[in-house]
Amino acid sequence: MPRVLVCTEQQVIRVADKLYSETEVEQLYVHLKPFKESTNPEVIWRLARATCDKAKSTSDKTLRKELMYEALSYAERALALGKDTNFACHKVIYIFAHFIMH
Fold first, then answer.
1. Mind listing the pLDDT tens digit for each residue in 18-33?
2. Rounded to two decimals, what is the model's pTM?
3. Separation of alpha carbons 84 and 28, rounded Å
4. Which residues, at least 6 apart from 5, have a Cβ–Cβ distance to it below 8 Å?
């Protein structure tokens, strides 16, 4: 029988923060993407940030646009889940607004 690794949200956040501090953009996105349905705003805003960073790291304009819209949807959801109190979500939304203006 295959083993299933169960992570607590705190473990997910801890690994995400470590990957972010090491600038492991792709690994961070891959790590967080399976948790996109989480109801924890701390997980979702990190996914928004990771998606935004992945978008900024690609030279493919179509992919960048898709990823920025994906990041925006995560940031908006994290804001809703967190009762609009998470500064990091506002930052991702600001980056998105800057992106679409240029």
1. 999 999 999 999 999 9
2. 0.83
3. 24
4. none
Residue whose structure tokens are 């996109």: 36
Cα separation, 1 vs 65, in Å, equals: 41
Instruction: Give domain status of residue 8, yes or no.
Output: no
Domain count, the chain: 1
CA nearest to 53, candidates 70, 40, 77: 70
Q: Quick check: is 3 in a domain?
A: no
Sequence-distant (6+) residues with CB within 8 A of 38 are 9, 44
Percent of all residues in the chain with a pLDDT value above 70, rounded to a whole number: 87
Do the domain assignments include residue 49?
yes
| Dihedral sign (CA 30, 62, 52, 24) | positive
Joined together, the tokens standing for residue 85 give 């109190």
What the block records as the tokens of 72 is 């925006």
Cα(18)–Cα(27) distance, rounded to whole angstroms? 11
